[in-house]
Amino acid sequence: MMQRRVLLHAMAALTAAGLAPQLMAQTRPAVEVWKDPNCGCCKDWVTYLQANGFTVKVNDTGNTAARARLGIPVALGSCHTAQVGGYAIEGHVPAADIRRLLREKPKAVGLAVPGMPVGSPGMDSPLYGGRKDAYQVMLVLKDGRTRVFNAYPSTSSTPSTSSTPSTPSTASKKETS
Q1: How many angstroms separate the CA atoms of 122 and 127, rounded?
Q2: d(CA 100, CA 98)
Q3: pLDDT values of the chain reduced to their tens digit, one per residue, 177 residues
Q4: Is the pTM of this model over 0.85?
C-alpha cells in the first residue's frame, strides 16, 4: 500500500513538472504588437509589458494597417497597436488597464491612449526628468464612441509642453494591478 502511494506521488510530480511550463505560458496573456522597427518608446512599452507578465510577439512593420484592421479610429492613434484576448490596444496603455479589460470583458473594440503622453508606460524614460503628464485610457466601443476607462493625473512639477524629446529605449518598470 505504501509503495503504491509513493509511486502515485512520483507520477503526479513528474506529470506536474512536465506540464508546468505549459501552464505558466497559459497564464501569461499573449500580446501581438505592430510597431515601427526604429521606435524607442515602442520598444520600451514592449519591455514594460514583458516585465509585467505578458508574452509579447512583435511585428516591426508599422501599425497603420493593424490599427485599421482592428477597428481603432485614426483620431485615437499612437505609435504602436496591439491585440490581446480579442481586443485592440492602441498606444501606451498601462498593464493594469489591459488586465482589467481582460477580466471585465466589456463589449468593445479595445483600449487607446491617444498620442504619446509623457509619463505613460514606454514614455517614462529618465530623459523626461520624472515628468508625468495627465492622460486618459479610452475604452473604444464597437460603434466608434469612446468613454474614459481610466485617468492618470499629472504628477509633475514641470509644466507640460507640446514638444517631446526623442526617447531612448530604457523602460522596464513593473506595476501591480
Answers
A1: 12
A2: 5
A3: 555 454 445 445 544 455 444 444 457 999 999 999 999 999 999 999 999 999 999 999 999 999 999 999 999 999 999 999 999 999 999 999 999 999 999 999 999 999 999 999 999 999 999 999 999 999 999 999 999 999 999 986 554 443 333 333 334 344 444
A4: no
- Identify which of 76, 83, 48 has the alpha carbon closest to the alpha carbon of residue 144: 76
Cα-flanking dihedrals φ and ψ of residue 143, to 5°? -90, 5
Closest CA relative to residue 152, chosen from 125, 120, 124: 120
Q: How far apart are CA 5 and CA 3, in angstroms?
A: 5
Q: Three-state DSSP class for 148?
A: strand
Which residue matches cell numbers 499629472?
154
Closest by CA to 122, choosing from 176, 78, 64, is 78
End-to-end Cα, the chain, rounded Å: 47
